[in-house]
Amino acid sequence: MRIDELRKVVEREYSRLCEVLKLDPIPLDVYLVDEDSKQFSELGISLKSPLAFYDKEKIILPRTDNELNALQNYEPKFPPIVWDKAHPKEWPLWRVELWHEVCHQVENDIIRGWKGGVEGGDAWKDAVIYIAKCFKVTKEQVTAIL
Ligand SMILES: [Zn+2]
C-alpha cells in the first residue's frame, strides 16, 4: 500500500472513531519516515521521527516502508470484528497505534484527566471503560487491542 492510500484509510478510521466516541476530530498526521530527510511533515514533525504520539492538539502517526510493504489492500472492519491486536489482518500496527493515541484523546477530552502519555493510570482506565461502553464490548476486549 502507498502512504497516500494508507493515509485515507487511517483518516476514515479516525473519523469513525470520533463519531462513536463523540470526540471532536483533531489534526492527524500520517507520514512516511525517512531517516535521511531534512524535511518536515504537514504538522511540522521531522520526517526522521518514527514516534507516534498525542499532545491535545494533534495525533502524529508516522509509518515505515517496511510496514507499508507488508500491508495488503485490506481495510479492517469497523466496528472491529475481533478484539485482539495479535490478529494481523484486522489489527495492523497503524490501527493499534491509532486506537492507543485516541485512548489518550479520550483521557483528555472526555475523562478530563490526561497527564501526558501515561498508560495504566486512573484516567487511562476510565478511558478504556468509556471506549468499551461506546462499542458495547468489555474493558478486557478494549485492553486486548491497546
Ligand atoms: Zn501512550
Bound molecules: zinc ion
End-to-end CA span: 24 Å
Proportion of helical residues: 40-55%
The mean pLDDT is: 96
Main beta sheet: 3 strands, mixed
The gyration radius over C-alpha positions equals: 15 Å
**Biggest sheet strand line-up:** 1-3-2
Report the structural category. Answer: mainly alpha
**Helix/strand order:** HEEEHHHH
Uncertain runs with pLDDT below 50, 5 residues or more?
Answer: none
Proportion of strand residues: under 5%
Count all strands and give the number: 3
Q: What report would you give on this structure?
A:
Helix content is 42%, strand content 4%. By secondary structure, it is mainly α. A three-stranded mixed beta sheet has the order 1-3-2, covered by helices on one side. Zinc ion (ZN) is lined by residues 100, 104, 117, 119.
Properties at a glance:
146 residues, mainly alpha, three-stranded mixed beta sheet, 5 helices, globular, binds zinc ion
Quick overview:
With 146 residues, the chain is mainly α.
In terms of topology, how is this protein built?
Elements: H1 3-21, E1 28-29, E2 53-54, E3 59-60, H2 65-70, H3 93-109, H4 122-135, H5 139-143
Parallel strand pairs: 1-3
Antiparallel strand pairs: 2-3
Helix pairs in contact: 1-3, 3-4
